[in-house]
UniProtKB/TrEMBL annotation:
<comment type="function">
    <text>Binds and transfers iron-sulfur (Fe-S) clusters to target apoproteins. Can hydrolyze ATP.</text>
</comment>
<dbReference type="GO" id="GO:0005524">
    <property type="term" value="F:ATP binding"/>
</dbReference>
<comment type="similarity">
    <text>Belongs to the Mrp/NBP35 ATP-binding proteins family.</text>
</comment>
<keyword id="KW-0378">Hydrolase</keyword>
<keyword id="KW-0067">ATP-binding</keyword>
<dbReference type="GO" id="GO:0016887">
    <property type="term" value="F:ATP hydrolysis activity"/>
</dbReference>
<feature type="binding site">
    <location>
        <begin position="26"/>
        <end position="33"/>
    </location>
    <ligand>
        <name>ATP</name>
    </ligand>
</feature>
<keyword id="KW-0411">Iron-sulfur</keyword>
<dbReference type="GO" id="GO:0051539">
    <property type="term" value="F:4 iron, 4 sulfur cluster binding"/>
</dbReference>
<keyword id="KW-0479">Metal-binding</keyword>
<comment type="subunit">
    <text>Homodimer.</text>
</comment>
<protein>
    <recommendedName>
        <fullName>Iron-sulfur cluster carrier protein</fullName>
    </recommendedName>
</protein>
<dbReference type="GO" id="GO:0046872">
    <property type="term" value="F:metal ion binding"/>
</dbReference>
<keyword id="KW-0547">Nucleotide-binding</keyword>
<keyword id="KW-0408">Iron</keyword>
<dbReference type="GO" id="GO:0016226">
    <property type="term" value="P:iron-sulfur cluster assembly"/>
</dbReference>
<dbReference type="GO" id="GO:0140663">
    <property type="term" value="F:ATP-dependent FeS chaperone activity"/>
</dbReference>
Length: 259
């Protein structure tokens, strides 16, 4: 009996359950991948253990943004081992599962199965998994809702009306699946001209905040349209890993997730 008690006492405490947060958008190109990578880096800078699942079958870009593109995940006991990055965030991407440069043309069940492999991987002590979903409301999203039940979802949109209508559709999908909507993020609002400093709004401004008021879905923050953000992503040196107002914009949203 004493031996048994000692064995129980020696056992490491059970890790807290991992929180899966899905990042979705109504359509492509609104900055969902950019936000996912930078939120992950911002959370890691705050001392959180974070993993990124890049489920965007149409354009997996996390290995580029987080600079671990050339690396292939290994497997152990039939499960993938996430690929570390130098930003303190581990990544598994649809892009890691296919030959570089090859288009992914998977049908629903295959894509759902691939998502399962990325999520049910050796995530170790990761407390939070941010899942960069494909845009829209397709098979991968359904598989995400039904099989992997995220703790919550974030929807990214530009302030443009059309993007907002699509974002609303994405939000409805999560609501139907009873996934709590953590909030909306407005991306690409407020462009500061690098020459004269004047702020203009190519895609409008404030539309997402208005949508938040109209729907009751919380507004998490606004990321400006900035050449640096695009250049940082292309260079594999995410903006959130640096200092300055843009890194702070990502950090502010990350703080709202951390509570
Ligand atoms: P999505 O994942 O929604 O398809 P991405 O994150 O890939 O969108 O962004 C699309 C393009 O826009 C990329 O080239 C990215 O670097 C750029 N981008 C995203 N957000 C911003 C921003 N706030 N400022 C400037 N460029 C941005």
């Amino acid at each position: 009996e004493e031996v048994r008690v000692a064995m129980i006492a020696d056992r490491a405490p059970e890790p807290a359950p991992r929180r899966i947060i899905a990042i979705g958008s109504g359509k492509g190109g609104v900055g969902k991948s950019t936000l996912t990578a930078n939120l992950a880096v911002a959370l890691a800078r705050m001392g959180r253990k974070v993993g990124v699942v890049d489920a965007d079958i149409y354009g997996p870009s996390q290995p580029t943004i987080l600079a671990n593109k050339g690396e292939r995940p290994k497997a152990e006991d039939g499960k993938l081992i996430p690929v570390p990055s130098k930003w303190g965030v581990s990544v598994l991407s649809m892009g890691h599962l296919v030959e570089p440069g090859k288009a992914i043309a998977w049908r629903g069940p295959m894509a759902g199965n691939a998502l399962g492999q990325l999520i049910d991987a050796h995530w170790g002590d990761a407390e939070v998994l941010l899942v960069d979903l494909p845009p829209g409301t397709g098979d991968v999203q359904l598989s995400m809702l039904q099989k992997h039940k995220p703790a919550g979802a974030i929807i990214v949109s530009t302030p443009q009306d059309l993007a907002l209508i699509d974002a609303q559709r994405a939000a409805n999908l999560f609501e139907t699946g009873k996934i709590p909507l953590i909030g909306l993020v407005e991306n690409m609002a407020g462009y500061a001209c690098p020459h004269c400093g004047e702020i203009s709004d190519p895609f409008g401004r404030g539309g997402v905040e208005d949508a938040s008021e109209a729907t009751g879905i919380p507004f998490l923050g606004r990321i400006p349209l900035a050449i640096d953000i695009r250049e940082d992503s292309d260079a594999g040196t995410p903006t959130a890993a640096q200092d300055g107002p843009q890194a702070e914009a990502f950090a502010a949203i990350a703080r709202s997730l951390s509570d």
